[in-house]
Amino acid sequence: MSTVALARCENYEYENVRPAVQKGIDLLGGPGMFARSGEKILFKPNWLVADPPEKLTVTHPMVFKAMVEIFKTTGATLFYGDSPSIQSPEHAARMAGFLPIANAEGVSLADFKLGKEIVFAEGLQNKKFVIANGALDCDGIISLPKLKTHGLERVTGCVKNQFGCVPGALKGEFHVKLASAIDFARMLVDLNAFLKPRLYVMDGIIAMEGNGPRGGKARPMKVLLFSADPVALDATVCRMIDINPEFVPTITLGMQAKTGTWKKDEIELVGDPFESFVDKEFDVKREPVQPYSRGKGGTLLRNAIVPKPYILAGKCTKCGTCVKACPVNPKAVDWHDGDKKVPPSYRYERCIRCYCCQELCPEGAVELRVPFIRKLLGKKRKQKASSTV
After folding, report:
1. Is the omega angle on the peptide bond into residue 213 within 30 degrees of 0, that is, cis?
2. Exposure letters 99-128 (e unless 16+ CB within 10 A, then b)
3. What are phi and psi of 344, to 5 degrees?
4. Global pTM exceeds 0.90
């Protein structure tokens, strides 16, 4: 039986965050369950990019501050860090509001610029990773994910948060090698199984819905979630926002890898009532991920049924973040005609549907559009389902 603790928190005022975090940790047995005197403990937040906390892209610094204060009582030496996709860890720490808190508390920024190759023989799919030194040098990791939607995997949560332990520039290589959302999720599960964080604390006080994980909208959920089981916590969040956990590959594959459970009867919920946090209007895609083949016919199938990224010209500032983020060579999104006074354009025959462009656009100007055939097939499935009721 896995335990997930829920703690209500109305906003990011520290006088509200601190007791809510304390409540959640105490419901799981207290900080001493996850850290001991003399150990090196790493706090791993979600710093997708170097955004300020009000943009909701990153784990809020007040959650980090509360965790530091609580875990300093264990006598452990505390570190923190993450590897953003396109900026330095130092810049992200400053922009996300973590740096002044860490300096005041004597918490050092771990090395997330450089890493070492490791062999993980137990991996279901990926047997080798390059892991940031900061994640390898600690005795234990405490993961601090953010509740957000995600174009490729439906939601970004506990399991996916450890992708930040791969140094920034190397992340794109995984997208190229593992373009299928299923294969990519399997890699994330292997990575999480290797790193084995001791505790997960999810910031859902104000979540991001819609065009996440960077360009979505604020959705107050007023909840912090705590668990040692990443699959159970992610599944609980899915039920909270009314999406079937089986639609999220990192959840189903995580259970197959025995890193946790998503089954409701194997999860004990403690703390504030789960029903008080349920939000069926949360804007998230409530359908299974559709994998596709990269072999014969793969491009045709991809363009026919797999959602494609599309730039909203009215929102685009021509900053080039999407171009920089595109991991394929030659680029699928670029100023193909050389005119940088207009938004970049796509050559979809090159696009692997990794959605890095949508994920990292600072203006939310890249959206995912469902092809007509996919819409038609979806409509027929709904009609067939309703006729059998």
Report:
1. yes
2. bebbeeeebebbbbbebeeeebeebeebee
3. -60, 165
4. yes
- Cβ atoms of residues 189 and 254 within 8 Å: yes
* 332-347 pLDDT tens trace: 999 999 999 999 999 9
The closest of 230, 238, 289 to 255, measured between CA atoms, is 230
Per residue in 359-389, pLDDT (tens digit) is 999 999 999 998 765 555 554 444 443 333 3
For the chain, list the domains and their CATH numbers.
Answer: 2-277 (3.40.50.11440), 299-387 (3.30.70.20)
Average pLDDT for residues 125-140, to the nearest whole number? 97
- Using pLDDT thresholds of 50, 70 and 90, give the confidence band for residue 304: low
Q: What's the per-residue H, E or C state across the chain?
A: CEEEEEEECCCCCHHHHHHHHHHHHHHCCCHHHCCCCCCEEEEEECECCCCCHHHCCECCHHHHHHHHHHHHCCCCEEEECCCCCCCCHHHHHHHCCCHHHHHHHCCEECCCCCEEEEECCCCCCCCEEEEEHHHHCCCEEEEECEEEEECCCEEECHHHHHHHHCCHHHHHHHHHHCCCHHHHHHHHHHHHHHHCCCEEEEEEEEEEECCCCCCCEEEEEEEEEEECCHHHHHHHHHHHCCCCHHHCHHHHHHHHCCCCCCCHHHEEEEECCHHHHCCCCCCCCCCCCCCCCCCCCHHHHHHHHCCEEEECCCCCCCCCHHHHHCCCCCCCEECCCCCCCCCCEECCCCCCCCCHHHHHCCCCCEEEECCHHHHHHHHHHHHHHHHCC
Residue 220 has pLDDT above 90, yes or no: yes
Cβ count near 141 (within 10 Å): 23
φ/ψ (deg, to 5) at 316? -70, 130
- For residue 223, give the amino acid letter: V
